[in-house]
Design a protein that fits this description.
The protein is α/β, with parallel strands linked by helices. The chain has a single domain, classed as 2-Layer Sandwich (Nucleotidyltransferase, domain 5), CATH 3.30.420. It is 41% helix and 16% strand. It is built from eight helices and five strands, in the order ββαβααββααααα. Strand 1 and strand 2 form a beta hairpin. The longest helix is centred in the last third of the chain and has 22 residues. The radius of gyration is 17 Å and the shape is globular.
């Protein structure tokens, strides 16, 4: 995994979690890491266990030069669409950085420019660059924590296990109980196959 894209440049890695979910927010993180940071667990958040992610969160927060985490809720997702909401969550996270980045490394192939800061879209960047991997872990864990909290209010949707993703059990619960106040109505309208399998 690479420590940077451009040597000598203050880079912030950015990633999001929850884009493909039926319920809950989309959450993004931005992380500026020291170039010499290394940890054997560090990888794309989808490739490591929840226990390893939970171990890494306080380590990343302690060693990071700066980090930020941005939430865009389900209602705003419905208003502006999930792609724009993902970009906005990244902007919110970048706004929180106490050190201004000179460059942004974005996981994926699209992004809405942030102010005058150069950005580079990296396909599978969370498995290539340490700062993006760190961002993916902070975003994933922050979102999972939120979904665990609201799962106590609506246990019938099994968010405890699916975190809002369209599992069979989740979709069956939607059919049986209808949408909760936390569900994204835009998915119900535009992605019927997600709910009607």
């Amino acid at each position: 995994m690479e420590p940077y894209y451009q040597k000598g440049v203050i880079e912030a890695g950015c990633d999001e979690a929850g884009r493909g979910c039926l319920a809950g927010p989309v959450v993004a993180a931005a992380v500026i890491l020291p170039s010499d940071f290394n940890h054997p667990f560090l990888n794309d958040s989808k490739q490591i266990s929840p226990k390893k992610r939970q171990t890494l969160v306080p380590i990343i927060k302690e060693v990071a030069i700066s980090y930020g985490i941005g939430f865009i809720d389900h209602e705003e997702i419905d208003q502006i669409n999930i792609l724009r909401a993902s970009f906005k969550a990244m902007h919110v996270a970048i706004d929180q950085l106490k050190t201004r980045p000179e460059s942004l490394l974005i996981d994926g192939n699209r992004f809405d420019s942030y102010k005058e800061v150069a950005h580079y879209c990296m396909i599978k960047g969370d498995a290539r660059f340490k700062s993006i991997a760190a961002a993916s872990i902070l975003a994933k864990e922050a979102r999972d924590d939120y979904m665990l909290e609201i799962s106590q209010e609506y246990p019938q949707y099994d968010w405890l296990n699916n975190k809002g993703y369209p599992t069979k059990k989740h979709k069956e619960a939607v059919r049986k109980f209808g949408l909760s106040p936390y569900h994204r109505k835009s998915f119900n309208q535009t992605s019927q196959t997600r709910l009607d399998l």
